[in-house]
Amino acid sequence: MERTLVLVKPDGVQRGLVGRILQRFETKGLRVVGLKLRRFPEELIREHYAMHAERPFYASLVRFMTSGPVVAVALEGENAIAVTRNLMGATNGQEAAPGTIRGDFGMSVSFNLVHGSDGPESAAKELKLFFGADGDLVDWTPTLESWVYDQDDQG
Ligand code: DAT
Ligand code: MG
Fold it and tell me: Considering the entire predicted model, what is its pTM?
């Protein structure tokens, strides 16, 4: 089992898409183990996107991400990081495949609705940033788990 961080960005919240976006992950079989809506502090957002600090879009990205409420979601599942990224689609909504969140709901590269951690190290760092301080992730096992994962699956 792996955990990853998803953010529903301010455009997703403002457009009333939080429920539909969360539903994509839930119905896929990923388990929500953390959930919070906040207007996150600029310092936290700067740290979250620190790897992009030198990029020309960094300032506007930070402005956008602090412009309104964001929903932070911690998801758990087998290969949760890659599965989540695949459900999100390519960064630019105009290029994202139909059926993905960005492909179905967006037309922009910056207003692209969702963030998802891109690897185990960023997932650990980002989960700590958004949930670590409160220690508020929840360990639980859905009762339908045995119908999501087949214990006889090979590798
Ligand atoms: P992703 O969110 O798909 O992991 P990324 O890590 O390359 O994409 O970039 C982080 C965010 O920065 C992205 O979700 C939207 C914004 N961004 C990326 N490229 C951009 C560009 N060329 N112009 C404006 N914003 C951009
Ligand atoms: Mg990224």
Answer: 0.97
